[in-house]
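May I ask you to review the protein record following this short note?
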Amino acid sequence: EYSCEYGSLKFYALCGVGGVLSCGLTHTGVVPLDLVKCRMQVDPQKYKSIFNGFSVTLKEDGVRGLAKGWAPTFIGYSMQGLCKFGFYEVFKILYGNMLGEENAYLWRTSLYLAASASAEFFADIALAPMEAAKVRIQTQPGYANTLRQALPKMFAEEGIWAFYKGVAPLWMR
């Protein structure tokens, strides 16, 4: 009757796959818009508006330039979605079991909020390294054009901290 048992490993895996598809694909699909937005934030004199930002990017980098940062976006947001959707269910069941059936029902909104916040904590840790690489690829001309170029360069320059400087702002949002 059901595709899998609620709370089983298969259930968590399916939730995680749903997160990969929901977050990874959708964020990758809007990379051109995100690229222009990030560039507008870093250099508002050069990228004056969304339309101007697209125009400048196309003139300087061509159509391929609009895809800069697609790989870290896909990987990072896929990891975030995996953790967000999968861990949400883990924490929802864990916290519900801790409260007991009646209290879990009575306090369900708080339970869902706590499960969501707990999942997001780990999801942002999974996202942070790829988000850091994406921003450098998109906003620092000449730094790196691909994820394969960005990751070793970031590590060589700043060590592991380069990948997690943005995790606290992710938690704050």
Notes: The mean pLDDT is 96. The CA atoms of residues 133 and 150 lie 6 Å apart.
